[in-house]
Amino acid sequence: MLFRSVSFPESSPSLARKNPSPAQHMILTAGKDGLIGLWSVNKTYNRLYLEKRIVILPRNLPEEIDHKTQLIVSMKEIGVTALAPCRQDPTTFAVGTFGCYLFQCDVSSQDELDPSLELDVILPSRMVAELVNGNPRYLRQGRGYVNGLDYSPFHQNLVLASTIHGHVELINTLKVTSVQFQH
To answer: Are 131 and 54 a contacting pair, CB within 8 Å?
Structure first.
């Protein structure tokens, strides 16, 4: 399970809809089941409220990914291996997954999931009802298992991705280009 704390400026619209007394900080969680959760912290009772749940699915991969890979991950969610919120825009975050895929998601999305996805085959029905479309945007396939992600403190469209094989890439999310370094 991955955890990241996200701070929202006081002036930003609140994503905490279920929490009667939300704090400024929220928590992003993700796991090998492909589910990403956004939790609000209650200032009064020290309690967490699950505000949104997003899932990364094989359907989020572009069509040019080879069919052998698509078969391996078909009908299953894609597990999350790395997670990083953007410092300048806390509603945006980068996700690394099994299969070395990199995505960018948006927790402020109000879009509902496509009902034709038939997610109740892979997830309990109570979870499917809570899911929202985080608009996962495929960035690229990395050069190995992504185990670290971080947004630039200076530019909101630059993401640094590291792999367990020693590769480091600086990715521009606007043009989906990267500069690669290897240790």
So the answer is: yes
**CA-based nearest residue to 133, from 31, 73, 55, 49:** 55
Token pair recorded at residue 164: 């367990």
Torsion angle (degrees, nearest 10) of CA 102, 76, 31, 9: 60
Mean per-residue pLDDT for 12-23?
74
* Cα 116 from Cα 114, distance rounded (Å): 5
Return the number of other C-beta atoms located less than 10 Å from residue 71's C-beta: 10
Assessment of whether the complete model's pTM goes beyond 0.85:
no
Output the six-digit token pair for 17: 């809809």
**Per-residue model confidence as pLDDT tens digits over 151-180:** 999 988 999 988 888 888 888 888 866 566
28 Cβ contact partners less than 8 Å away, ≥ 6 residues apart: 2, 3, 4, 5, 6, 36, 37, 38, 39, 83, 85, 93, 107
Spell 34-52 as b/e; 16+ CB within 10 A means b.
bbbbbbbbbeeeeeebebb
Q: Are 89 and 156 in contact, with CB atoms under 8 Å apart?
A: yes
In angstroms, what is the C-alpha Rg of the chain? 16
